[in-house]
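For reproducibility, we list the full input for the iron/sulfur cluster complex.
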Amino acid sequence: MALLDLSDVTVSIGALTPLDRIAFSIEAGEIIGVVGESGSGKSLTAMAVMGLLPLIGGRITSGAVRFADVELNRLPERDYRALRGRRIALISQNPMTSLDPIRRVGEQIDQVSMMHLGLGTEQARLRSVDMMRQLRIPEADVVHGNYPHQLSGGMKQRIVIAMALAADPELIVADEPTTALDVTIQAQIIQIMVEMARRKNVALMLITHDMGVVAQACDRVVVLYAGRVAETGSVERIFAAPRHPYTKSLIGCIPVEGLPPGGLKGIDGVVPGVANYPTGCRFHPRCSLAQDRCKIEAPLLRALDEGAAACHLAGDPP
Ligand code: SF4
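The corresponding predicted structure, in tokenized form, follows.
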């Protein structure tokens, strides 16, 4: 049984339907990249998994989110709260949304294992310092007593990763965890997070707009476009033979060493807003391969030899 399984999850916010039949699963210990541009539905997918949709007036209107043997979308908020932080942890974009600015960072890590694992104060402190060392925080003993404002952005995000790992969760949802960081340390933080996830056999749902991060870190990838799954598959297959033109465009956006300034390819146009989703295939206004049929008929997500793709031409690599 998959650790996490989303089957045809549709999310509504008022009269709008920003997520349409999202389907993918994550096995225990697996690292999945959920990728797409802004507005593709990545963060909403994370919120659907974390049970946080009510915060923005959203709800799952059909489909199911299953975590191990628990149907999350039927779980009362009290039970969800017990699961969050303990079995499913969240790493958000900005470390300061997770850190209390007026408490020592070490105490904030300690608190997670005291609350969820029932450890005593000293046991929790030792565990936190050990975790901080594994996350390559220099002088972990000293940093344990620091306040967030004394640390760099990269160090703060390592503290947040330590907090996420502190209760030995089975799944971590990391929502663009390096977006707020200096570009020079982004790769390093991803590498440390992935290393720790592998070492502890924690499944990771890594949300990113960057196919380069997916190539660096993930086992499998879910490509979202305008609230629908465009393609899923192993990282090897997706990079070797992308079946959806959008996936191919995202791969084309990865910076190539030695490329002259301005030589980086982007994708023409923008993701449509949820109130203006086009008919048929939602990618058709930006797709160089679009045919008349694409403007009318929405392609179904079809299983392929390995993975799945939602494109009328998906039988042949574009
Ligand atoms: Fe392009 Fe048509 Fe495929 Fe959509 S269904 S990605 S418009 S070829």
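The two ends are 33 Å apart (CA to CA). The mean pLDDT is 92. Both points were considered when choosing residues for closer inspection.
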